[in-house]
Amino acid sequence: MKSPWPLKPFLVIATFALGITLPQYIPQWYNWRIYEWSAAPAILDFQPRSRAAAPMQEEMERLRPDTVPVKADDSKIHDPGGAMDNFYAALLKTERRQGNAVTRILHYGDSPTTADLITADVRNFLQTRFGDAGHGTYLIAKPWAWYAHRGLDVTASGWKMDPATLHGQKDGRYGLGGVSFTGSAGAESKITLRNAGHTRLSLSYFAQPDGGEVSIDAGDVHITTLDTSSPEAAAVEQTWPIPAEAQKFQIKVTRGTARLFGVTFRKDSPGVMYDSIGLNGTWAGVLASHVNGQHWIEELRMAKPNLVVINYGTNESGYRNYVDTTYPKDVKEILRRVKTAVPEASILMMSPMDRGAREQGGTIGTMPTLPQLVSVQARLAAENGCAFFNTFQAMGGPGTMGKWYMAEPRLVSADFIHPLPSGARIVGTLLYQALVDGYNSYKLKQLRQNMAAVPKQTVGSKP
Asked: Locate the SGNH hydrolase-type esterase domain: which residues (predicted)?
């Protein structure tokens, strides 16, 4: 008997019905809902949109939510104890071109940092004003397809890649960048710089008794052949001069097995080096427990940063129980490790951006746990003598990602988490401006202290 329903149209309708229904019941698909069944009764009770008192202003705020002003205090770094002073002092030496003064910033973050979003803009702004001391750290290969740094690219083959998030290396050694790369003879990486001008290259690797041999070339120029074997296992960083005009580099394992971490490009001039160190899907527990503490401390000491930015929280915000229990312990351990390694460095805790979530009625609100997590971060920063930047409030607070998603053009992707380049630039500008505002306040404070230290001339005395 022939079915009264044509099979193909029926399957299409059924598939569509499943597509709009399943996300209601599968938490992992929550943000992909395209229809809110609970809002169906509202269709029968349609209310016309009320007329706005200022329709032009309302529409402009919808199209360009980044132009809506925020409170002045929300856009500044909270630093009542002067935790940023050492960083500002280093930046002042760089600005004055005192010797070969390089100010180095390590920015640890999650997936946006993995793609050099936000960090690329801050790097560009700082280097434009204070000078370019080099790109900083770059991984040997791409652990994730979207790993990218502005101004660099890499093609690689033959590497076994172990990010710290997956706990692939039982010894917990992942270098400064959080990823270990193991390759036998033939494994290679070809790195291309968009612009020339770097004068030194550093390679971070793990020396061990059975370490292999690595060849490094800059175009047609052979830089070195490195033997990574050593009687004792240890993390090592070595640096070599490179031709300033070189833009293409090859790092290749030529004998045995070598374990590498990352490469750093430097310039012999005063300026800022801004290292973007992102781990996809990471959370505070990775740096607190997955990474070998003594190893990371040694890596930080070799890097000699003036500022360490801890920019986590997006992934943690989906787990209220973790935020309430283990998260504070993990953050304290991260801060302890950084202070042990580089006690002279400033530490800036940077909150995550807003994280959008569909609410009843289909509107895009904020993940409920996020404001609580930001409050915990602010408290931990204050208790541990660190500065704090509230990215969440600086960008607009609750509901910002919903506004960004409705903006034209959009500023955030459809997951309401990952900013598009234009959105990332907004956050990068906010962070840069907060750093510069803090720096200017520091310089003003130094000026007042210097003036107060100068003895006042008495009336009638000779100058």
From this structure: 278-426
